[in-house]
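The instructor's notes for this session suggest beginning with a concrete chain rather than abstract definitions. Hand out the sequence below and ask the class to guess, before any prediction is shown, which regions might be ordered.
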Amino acid sequence: MKIANLAGRLTIVTDSRAVDVEHASDFKFDADPQAIYDRFDEFMEWAAQTDLTGYGRAYSPDRLRAPAPRPSQIFAVGFNYRSHAQELGTTVDDGLPPVFTKFASAITGPFGSVALPEGSVDWEVELVAVIGRRAWRVDDVHAWHHIAGLTVGQDLSERQAQLRGSTPQFSLGKSYPGFAPMGPWLVTPDEFDDPDDLRLTCTLNADIVQDARTSQMITPIPALVARLSRVVALSPGDIIYTGTPAGVGLSRQPARFLNAGDELVSQIDGIGAMRHNMIVAHPT
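After discussion, reveal the predicted structure:
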């Protein structure tokens, strides 16, 4: 099932049609997309038992927003692809990769413009997992049970702010407005033949700059959920950015960063694509 945020309303997308959940459920469920994660099992049961034929309406994709717009926690994983660690000259082990956050004010939807701040803004396509059931000290075997679904993400990063000085500011450098796009919708795990092996690509001005498979993660999604939940209780609606593969602009010779007028397309097979145009931020 594809679960979407259509102009701020919880929606199920079927083919090219959109079903407004509040209306289809006769107000059993709230229109707020974030609220559904606290009732995710109940919602999934209702959706499986309900004939939604006749409720669908045509919709404009530019009205889609982030499928989890107000998470209580955002976890972002660094160096979770060996190829990315190698291109930046970093050594990694097979334990839990470094974890930081992106602040929720950076969240934006799957289509539109991103205003570039001063500095060197880089791209990082990522698979994003959204928690659907509370996870506390779960094991790898049961971790998928706690995941509501998967979506496409971009971990946009202003490298000068991120790497300045002897104590890098990963979270701040990755949290400018619009630096956490997600979408176009959330796809439930049952929709995939293998949710641990998906192709993800990032295209800059029609040139593919990142191309990998999520099966190449050092720490796959079940292990990430298990290891994070040993320390932190994961709540419904929480977000995990699972890391990016090789191909970022910082590693190129010469380095290549985003400029006004660039078009960035982030895509994951079985989920869909996001499209963002870069513009210059207005001075404040």
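Then share the key points. Residues 2-64 form one domain. The chain has a mean pLDDT of 95.
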